[in-house]
Amino acid sequence: QVQLVESGGGSVQAGGSLRLACTASGSTFDAYTMAWFRQAPGKEREGVSCIRWSGDNTYYADSAKGRFTISRDNAKNTLYLQMNSLKPEDTAMYYCAAIIGDELVLDERRMNYWGKGTLVTISS
Q1: Which long-range contacts (CB under 8 A, 24 or more apart) does 62-67 make?
Q2: How far apart are CA 116 and CA 118, in angstroms?
Q3: What is the average per-residue pLDDT within 36-55?
Q4: Mean pLDDT across 20-24
């Protein structure tokens, strides 16, 4: 079992930046591929980015490419999402998720563990 707790959400103006963090506990952090998902009001949850346990392989959804950077610090059991050039359409609840193993996967149906989310609000 692993417990995931997100932090770093908040309200910023368009063009600003936020850094989300997800701290894991309860199991070996580096045994998991980690991912960020988000769900905007009235919309389905969508994948944002994922990263293999080693940190050497990442994937970004088109909406995140060039603006967001995913990283992890296995020594601190923490996953990060640096978000720059934020837009109002980035407004959503952001969730951290984990899948057992080393596969680079950004499919919510395959995630084994989820955090409760952190809210990001971008004003125009």
Answers
A1: 63/89, 63/90
A2: 7
A3: 95
A4: 96
